[in-house]
Amino acid sequence: MESHGGKIIAFIPARGGSKSIPLKNIKLLNNRPLIYYALDAAVGCKYIKSVYVSTDSQQIKECVQNYKSGKVKIVGRSPETATDEATTESVILDFIYNYCEEEFDYLVLIQATSPFLESKHLDEAIEKYFKTNCDSMLSVVRQKRFIWDTKGNYVVPVNYDPAKRPRRQEFKGFLVENGAFYITSKVQILKSKCRISGKISYYEMPEYSYFEIDEIEDWFIVETLISKIKRERIYEELREKVNKIKLLAMDCDGVLTDGGMYYSEKGEELKKFNTRDGMGISIVKKAGILTAIITSEDSEIVRRRAEKIGIDYVFLGIKNKLDILFRLVQKIGISLNEVAYIGDDINDIDVLKNVGFSIAPNDASEEVKKIVDYVTVNSGGNGVVREICDMICLLKAD
Question: How far is residue 99's CA from residue 95's CA, in Å, rounded to a whole number?
């Protein structure tokens, strides 16, 4: 790559006047501003030197500033390029002529509405761009669908012969522009006034990246897909850890319960447990995994609940949880590396740092969530243990 000797920059247009979804570019998608996904990809790309965000919105500007990367530069845009009718090409040319702060040779146009773009895609695409000696490149996905067009009152096939209908695995399909990114040279775009021109190559992205966010309906589809993909990747990364687990240990308050303090009219202390967690314990025990509760509280309610759901080892009123756990694994004949532990507060940190698989509920203290291997989707008392039991059994079964 260095032999090509050209500076590559990324350009992300982010207008504030979206009509279908107000301030779409900074609306939260799975708890992150949409534009952060594009920034992640561009900033993480090893070949891109600077990332320019062009916006007419003070709110978008402030949001991008909070991303806090020295690689990111925020620039304005002329009023005529911030209208509904303005083309992306007009925004790029306006940037080159009036706002760019440095000389560059190649430009990667990235659209914030395609949050499936990743740094590895840009790395691979830029490498292919130079290897193929093309003038421009666009991102695409392959779709295996049969296309028809209208002809008068009838339809005609476009990409296949109905008399010789191919099987899906034998059908090449066709390439569809997904709008995630475009690569071209400064010389080429100034000459053609178009984002792609000359000899055009392509970079094929995963089929799920076909979706762009233009309407609110797209938002829900993309958000669901991103959650699914993220969870699958996390599961794959955790597979090795989970396969070693022989003991599932946990705190009680904030894990098996919601951490709340409830009292009856007579002043009796009550706790709220989740029945799904009890079924989860039953599932992992059938898979041959031992279970334990280690809590600093000495409560008869916890003792009775542990007995009801069949917890193998119960330790109440414990101040040094790591010491108790160490003695337990010695007794069982396993190592701490074969223990999964669920904890939610600072008194669990020592244990969480020393076990093979550390877990926190999504409403755990921030200090805890920063150090664990996995943060659950569910909150304490709302199915955290069942979620982990299902995960362990699923990954062990694979």
Answer: 5
The structure tokens listed for 199 are 């000899």
Query: What does each C-alpha distance from 224 to 26, 178, 307, 375 come to in angstroms?
Result: 18, 18, 38, 18
**Are residue 8 and residue 63 in the same domain, yes or no?**
yes
Cβ neighbour number for residue 240 with a 10 Å cutoff = 11
Same domain, 186 and 46: yes
d(CA 357, CA 248): 9
Each residue of 201-216: pLDDT tens digit?
999 999 999 998 988 8
To the nearest 10°, the Cα dihedral for 325, 331, 334, 338? -30
User: β-pairing, 28-29 with 136-143?
Assistant: unpaired
The reply to whether 262 falls in a domain is yes
Structural domain of residue 301, as residue ranges? 244-397
**Domain count along the chain:** 2
Catalytic residues: 165
pLDDT in the model for residue 268: 66
Find where tokens 């009890």 sit: 278
Which amino acid makes up residue 7? Answer: K
> Using CA of residue 45, residue 51, residue 54, residue 58, what is the dihedral sign?
positive
> What's the chain's length in residues?
398
**Residue 342: which of 327, 325, 319 has the closest Cα?**
325
Distance CA 11, CA 72 (A): 10
pLDDT at residue 234, as a whole number: 82
In a domain, 238, yes or no: no
> Which of 181, 202, 229 is a domain's end point?
229
Asked if residue 237 belongs to a domain, the reply is no
| Tens-digit pLDDT profile for residues 48-81 | 999 999 999 999 999 999 998 999 999 999 999 9
Per-residue pLDDT at 1 exceeds 60 = no
Question: Is residue 222 in a domain?
Answer: yes
